[in-house]
Specification:
The structure holds two protein chains of two kinds. Chain A is built from eight helices and 18 strands. By secondary structure, chain A is an alpha+beta fold. In chain A, the strands form four sheets. In chain A, strands 3, 4, 5, 12, 13, 14, 15, 16, 17 and 18 form a ten-stranded antiparallel β-sheet that branches. Chain A has a four-stranded antiparallel β-sheet with strand order 6-7-10-11. In chain A, strands 1-2 form a two-stranded antiparallel ribbon. In chain A, β4 and β5 form a beta hairpin. In chain A, 29% of the residues are buried. Chain B is mainly alpha-helical. Chain B has 24 helices and six strands. In chain B, strands 1-2 form a two-stranded antiparallel ribbon. In chain B, strands 3-4 form a two-stranded antiparallel ribbon. In chain B, β1 and β2 form a beta hairpin. Classes of the chains: A alpha+beta, B mainly alpha. Chains A and B meet through α2, α3, α5, β14 and β17 of A and α21 and α22 of B.
Chain lengths: 392, 614
Amino acid sequence: MNPAVRSVRDFFVSLGLTVVLLALSLILVFASTLAQVDLGIYAVQEEFYRSFIAIWHVGGIFIPLPGGYLVGGLLLINLLSAHIYRLKLEWRKAGIQLTHSGLIVLLLGELFTGLWQEDFQMTISEGDTKNYSESFRLYELAVIDTTDPKMDEVVAIPDSKLAGAALVQHPKMPFRVATKAYFPNTTLARRDAAALSPAAAAVPVATRGIGSSVAVTPLPLTYKMNEMNVPSAVVELIGDEGSLGSWLVSPHLGAPQTLSHAGRTWRLELRIARAYKPFSLQLLKVTHDVYVGTDLPKNFSSRIKLTTPDGHDDREVLIYMNNPLRYGGYTFFQYQMDSSRGQTGLQVVRNPSWLLPYIACIMMTFGLLLQFGLSLRAFIAKRRTTAKPAVV
Amino acid sequence: MKKHLPLLFLLLGLALVARSFLPERNKTDFDLAAFGRLPVVVNGRVKPVDTVARTALVVLQSSQSIAAPDETKLTPNEWLLDVLFRSSRADAYQHFEINHPDLLAIFSLTPADGRAKRRFSFRQLEPKIDELQRQARLAEPVEAAIRTPFQKAVAQLYANLGLYIRLKASMVAPDHQDFLSELLTYQKNVTAGVAAVRAKEAGQPYDAALAAQMMESGGRFSRMGELAYLLAVPPSDGESNTTGWKKVGDSLLDSFPTGQINPAIMVYAGLARTWKADQPKEFNEILRLYRAQLERNFPQSLVKCDAEARYNSAQPFYTAMILYVLAFLIAVISWLVWPDELGRAAFWLLGIAWVLATAGLLARMWLEGRPPVTNLYSSALFVGWIAVGFCLALEYIYRNAIGSVAGGLVGFATLLIGYYLSLGGDTLEMMRAVLDSNFWLATHVVTVTAGYGATFLAGFLAIIYIFRGVFTKSLDKATADALSRMIYGIVCFAALFSLVGTILGGIWADQSWGRFWGWDPKENGALMIVIWNAIYLHARWGGLAKQRGLAVLAVFGNVITAWSWFGVNMLGVGLHSYGFMDSAFPWLLAFAGSQLLCIALGSIPLAMWRSFRA
């Protein structure tokens, strides 16, 4: 082998690299924990783990750290090459082999989760039925053709498209949608020209709908766990004969706005992004138990009726803490509850790779037990031959 | 003599244990213990009055020992009886701890006015309660994490005064002269009285005096219902009805339509009268009769309450703490003289302490119906238990007193931490909804906590390695090799427990929160321990660090474990919010500093270590 290639190989195979990478990951994890106090968990995940280089702000100082992708990726390469070149396939090493394979499964599981997992929530009131869940963070502009009383035709434009300020067109829409302004976090108030802040004054005013009497104030993005960013946008609809006017859309508005064009009626609203399901859930009853004489929650549970349009499934299920419903590739967790209003919040997760951590856990447990068990046996055997008999 | 040392210490240890199981001294003729075993409900759990008395004292003044102004010592139950039934005396007891000088200034008090320079009575504080309330209102909107020490002290004292006032209204009306006669009069008149009030409301002629008396009783009862701290009235249909416990005031309000007062309330009123009138015979008789009645409806609750009161007075972890210190000292001395005899004595003492701690843990598990670790306090107990268990095994194999020294040290340290954690109140808490899963508590929580214990133990063994090497000539090659192997063995267990525990935690999170891993601070803390153990193991296997370097690595494991055990809880963010605390931050820093000093010591060139100097 070429000496240069060999030295590169030796570098990637070495235990020295393993230890350095582990130490770097330790620093990364520590830094990301501290950073959560200011940034919140979501931003930290993006900044530290879904990145190659993470920048850690300490006071006014910026410390660059290798990000999760870099450290994790190098560790994976290090691990794989060690198995190819250094660790022999033999019984004595079976424990290590198994543990490392488990680790690979675990890391891959996390990778797949990051790629494929979808997180939604579903808020249902007692008696209500829902067949869609809603995003935690994403919004969509729904352009709904309501002309046919029997069915609605919906075109949903993701907020990322709106933010990109691109011109959106769709065969189902006889007009194009152009973003005149988009703000990812805003607050609304009644428009009072005299009291407008400079930021609010800079926002273009909608020519149609309720927007002309509303003042939009852009806010900085929030990363707090208990706050949501609420966007607002001013969109212009452009038909074949030119502009139909511009509308202010925002989840703050509460109700959708309607317009007529080319003999059809349309509803326009910026709402939390939805994901429709091939089944529906009806909330029958919520229960919120507390320990007697306290506010300490003992249990939250939601009794739900699960039905599919084809009628194959029609049954009652009980979802409570530590006991989610797994159905149709989705998992429904008890997430929030407002029992005084008879409302439950379910978290809806689709994660095709959810089983991998379970497999990894079993592999690594047995791997370590085997490895340490073998060492322990060797140790005891050695002591038998050298140590004097024990007396207590 | 020398030969009998181990036996002597064994007997001494057993005597200490036996003494702790003796009943508490009672200088009065009142059956205080029987009173202490009465069941009540606080924080959602049926517990003996004895627990209420002890935890209230600990919350108010960080200590269970209390004395009257005339210096007579009171047992916790005696103190509680005065609080419940004779507030004229209790108001003068100095049991409110105030450490902040500015807070004292509010009350125009100086440390000299207080017992032990920091404890004050309700009577001393009463005149300025309005001002305290104003300060508490000012502090209230400030988030707990960013309050100033003064604001924290205000909030704490305000809560403590609230606890005291609520306790006073728990069994009888707080300002009563003779609650029993008051109740008897009420019972006699209630039917006519309710009729009078109805008639008044309907605009018909009515007995004005009776109606006024009823209205007054109603007002008193509803105030008691609002204030009371204890749910002291058991449900009439027995212990299967876990949500039927009521406050005395609320139960009395319920009696208006029927005129039937719950017998438990008459019992409390009777106890109040006989306690005030100093009639022990009648007091004990009332207790005996009430107990007989409870035996029929609440047999299982009584068994647990009796056991818990017994557990409280025995204080097994306190005795274990003394034994751990003894074992540690004797083991250290055994390195200097009589290694065989003293080493064996230390081993036996460590064993007794560990068995006692095991019994204490089992008692807690049985009382709670839970696996051993349910909150920070019990995690401290368990960390110590697992570490000392390993030490006993090490000592059994190696017989060089190292296991006993480490065990004594870790056992004592963890129980000391536990003691400080217990100052927050009752340590047998009910589990919040998300934690209400014995399966995951038994698997994830126990393994992760065992991982803490093993990592700590490895760190302490490494400290022994460094100290003996640097300061003494006793670290010969055989001892150094043995210690190094011990550290390695324990790190293997630590890696196993923390890795498996962390992944199990991920699986629990997947089951209850919908994601396996979320980079939550507590998860990160556990991961850091796993990574650290992995670094140690790989550095050893790769020959990247030798004995001394590995020992230094193991010491740093202490810092990491302390960080994930307590440090992450002080950040005030994340989902594992059931263990938040911030007051111990200086202690955490001090501990980390001490460990870094040990590391610096271990990094001194080997040529300067006494053991390796030529």
